[in-house]
Write a structure and sequence with these properties.
The chain is α+β, with helices and mostly antiparallel strands. The protein contains 14 helices and 24 strands. Helices cover 29% and strands 26% of the residues.
Length: 508
């Protein structure tokens, strides 16, 4: 079992493979993924426990796949809600646009959209991490210095529980420590400001009973007099995000009397209890420089997005999935450190596209000019494809090995009834059929899981859609490349550092 705040000083005499600063969803997910490869991991956080009030309320099917890999998806399910979609509504109640979410299992092997209660999600991730013998967690430890030792980083911290100064060493340090990141400050990394900053008051309420008029869809109220968002959470949890207008006082906005006035179009005080209210300035920034030597950034330390696409936490989880296998390959398998440079080159363009789209969507929702709003309404009604959902691929760090390269892979169900990821684990995998699978049965590939796609299976259908006989998938479930025959498959494996002879993988 990992230990919480109970370690002797001798435990810090060794050098950890990775130190994670920050124990939110990104840090906890990264720690769990690293533990799957057996890395010695230290997690430090200045807070004594989970922040128990609501924050993030949404994650997607790709995120659920990450939780599946960690082994907590089924544990999470009873406390999740799959939302039916989002409506954009004008002041007259006219639906300008509707994004519908299917209730069926999607390409990721799960439904595509989930509502969650972040404290419960974090508890499940932490409980899972506590089962990992290679992970050490220290709460109430505030890191105040990071010193380059050449082959490692020395972390100096204050144990806030007893006012003592201590230190530890790690080969790599990942700052998952939020928007005011200490690690980012030591790296000297600047933030690229996308120039979208708007104050909103976020109100979380617990209904005393069901209020059917609220509905299950999220609703973007495109009202130039007062833009607002309604979100149905898990159970009786409901959230409103309401834009503050110029000149309105932030302190006044969170007074109960003012909050109930703002909420009056939807609920009254006898319908619900207010759980939390806070004024946020929705920022849109991307760090320029996610790695400096042995220091790296992930999650809000590397990027911050307005909430209009519900991708803030998802982006941090993708960071963790991308970075974890690369850190493991470098720390354990001897891959070149340059592999870590592909982390930013892949993730930064991907997350930037999401943020820029959220900014554009926010500008549509947030307009307070009635004439601009009328033009917007007409455009949304006549050309809804302008606002289609995003599916960006990895950035230029992704290998150019076929049209699907850099796209998130699918997760078909196999004839055994298993989902693909449960069969292959946290590994590279080649899904193949026909002559490719016959060749690999005769001469297997070291360090790559081979999955043979039988006829009339979901895996075979995926290959048909790719016009391929083989697809090579990275541990983070992104497609490295595709092949149309055995010769191309061998070349594809070689370009990823593998071959049809037993040897250790080389750097990507």
């Amino acid at each position: 079992m990992s230990q919480l705040n109970s370690l002797a000083e001798r435990d810090f005499e060794r050098t950890f493979d990775v130190a994670i600063i920050g124990f939110g969803p990104t840090g906890a997910t990264l720690g769990n993924l690293l533990a799957l490869r057996g890395l010695q991991v230290l997690v430090l956080d200045r807070e004594p426990d989970i922040y128990m009030l609501p924050r993030a309320v949404h994650f997607d099917g790709e995120s659920m796949r990450i939780f599946q890999t960690i082994g907590v998806a089924d544990t999470l399910l009873p406390d999740l809600y799959s939302a039916p979609g989002t409506k954009f509504v004008n002041p007259a109640g006219q639906v300008l646009l509707q994004w519908s979410h299917s209730s069926e299992v999607g390409p990721q092997g799960w439904r595509e959209h989930w509502r969650c209660h972040q404290p419960q999600l974090e508890r499940v991730l932490r409980d899972r991490l506590a089962e990992q013998p290679s992970v050490t967690v220290r709460l109430r430890h505030d890191v105040f210095a990071l010193d380059d030792l050449g082959d490692a980083v020395q972390l100096r911290f204050e144990d806030l529980s007893r006012g003592a100064i201590g230190s530890a060493r790690a080969r790599y340090v990942v700052g998952c420590d939020g928007a005011r990141s200490t690690v980012r400050r030591f790296m000297g990394t600047k933030l690229d400001d996308l120039k979208a900053h708007q104050r909103w008051v976020v109100v979380d309420a617990l209904l005393k009973r069901d209020v059917p008029s609220l509905g299950d869809h999220s609703i973007q109220y495109c009202n130039p007099a007062r833009p607002a968002t309604y979100i149905r959470g898990v159970g009786l949890r409901r959230r409103w995000e309401i834009m503050l207008l110029p000149g309105e006082d932030s302190a006044e906005a969170v007074r109960p009397e003012r909050l109930w006035n703002l909420l009056s179009p939807w609920i009254k005080s006898d319908d619900a209890d207010l759980e939390r209210a806070a004024v946020y300035t929705f920022h849109s920034v991307v760090a320029s420089g996610w790695r400096r030597g042995r220091l790296l950034l992930a999650g809000d330390a590397a990027h911050q997005t307005p909430p209009f696409l519900g991708q803030g936490m998802c982006a941090g989880l993708r960071d963790a999935a991308n970075l974890a296998w690369k850190l493991a390959d470098v720390a354990i398998d001897g891959a070149a450190e340059q592999l870590l440079d592909t982390y930013e080159s892949e993730r930064s363009p991907h997350v930037r596209e999401y943020i820029e789209t959220a900014v554009r969507l926010g500008s549509v929702i947030q307009t307070t000019d009635p004439e601009v709003a009328r033009e917007r309404d007409a455009a949304m009604l006549t050309n809804p494809q302008t606002f289609k959902a995003l599916k960006p691929s990895l950035g230029p760090g992704a290998h150019d090995a076929g049209p699907a390269s850099g796209q998130i892979g699918e997760q078909p169900k196999l004839p055994s009834g298993k989902r693909l990821d449960d069969e292959i684990g946290w590994n590279w995998a080649l899904v193949c059929s026909g002559p490719v699978s016959e060749a690999l049965v005769q001469q297997p590939v070291s360090a790559v899981r081979i999955v043979v796609a039988d006829d009339d299976t979901q895996a075979a259908s995926w290959l048909q859609r790719l016009n391929a006989q083989a697809v090579l998938i990275r541990p983070d479930r992104y497609v490295f490349g595709t092949a149309v025959d055995a010769r191309e498959a061998e070349a594809l494996l070689a370009s990823a550092g593998f071959s049809l002879v037993a040897r250790q993988p080389q750097p990507v």
